[in-house]
Hints:
alpha/beta
Amino acid sequence: MRSIGEEVRAGRRLVSDGAWGTALQERGLRSGDCPELWNAERRADVLAIARSYVEAGSDLIETNSFGGNRLKLAHYGLAERVAELNEAAAAISREAAGPDRHVLASIGPSGKMLLMGDVTEEDMYKAFKEQAQALERGGADACCVETFADLDEARLAVRAAKENTGLEVACTFTFEKTRQGEYRTMMGVSPADMAAAMLAADADLVGANCGNGMEQMTEIVRELRQAAPDVPVLIHANAGMPVTVDGVDTFPEDPETMARLALDVVRAGAQIVGGCCGATPAHIRAIRRALRDAGMIEA
C-alpha cells in the first residue's frame, strides 16, 4: 500500500472518518470515563465504530487513542498501560480497515502546559514517543497529531513520531475565528504559522480539525494552501458549529449539507476530508457520494 502522501501526489483524493467521541458516548461512555480503556474492556464496541466508518467508505480509519499518552492516562491511574491500550487501539482499527485502508492513529495533546512548567520538554517528548511506538506496533501506518494549539507541544509530538517510528505524520491544529476575522488557535497561532512550523518539524501532511464546520474550514484551507502549496492538506470538520440545546452541545448540519460544503473544501485545496465532532457514518457516506458524483474521487 502506498503512503497517504504518495496517493495524494498521484492525484487521488481521500475520505477520512468521522467523530469517535460522539460514537463512544452513544454506546455508553460517560463523562469522566477513560475512552482508551474501552480498547481493553469494550473492544467489540470500539471495533464496531471503526467498522461503521469502513462501511461508510472511509479510506482512512483513526484510532481510539486521542488521550492515550502517559501524561493524560495518569489522570485515570493508567499511566503504566500506555503500550497495552495504544497497541490495542491500533490493532482494532487495523482489523476493521484491512490491508487496503490506512490506519491513521490519533495522538492528541498531553493536557500539560509547557509554559506553566507542568512538564519538561524531555518528559513530553518521551510521552509522545512511547505512544507513537505503541500505535505503530499495533498496526498503524500513519498518525495524526491532532487538535493542537501550541507550536512547541506539537513540534515535540511530530518529532517524537518522526524520529522514533516509520509512521507517516499528519498534524492538525484547531483554529477559531477572531473578532478581527482571522483564524487563530487559543495560543494565537495562525494557519500559516502552523504550517511553517510543522513542516520544519518534518510533518508529512498539515491541516485543521474540530472547532469549525466545513464552511469555515474552506477559509482555513485557503490559508494553509497559500503557506504550503505542495503539501497534502487534511481536514476533519465538525458537523457545523455547535448549538447548545437544553445544556447539551448539538451539531446542526445534516449529512447532505455537510457533504455539499465539503465540495468547497476540496475545491479550496484539501485532498483529504472527513469529520470531527458530530460527524457520523451517515455524514461520511454522504461526503463520499458527493465527491464521487462531482468527479473528485473514484467511484
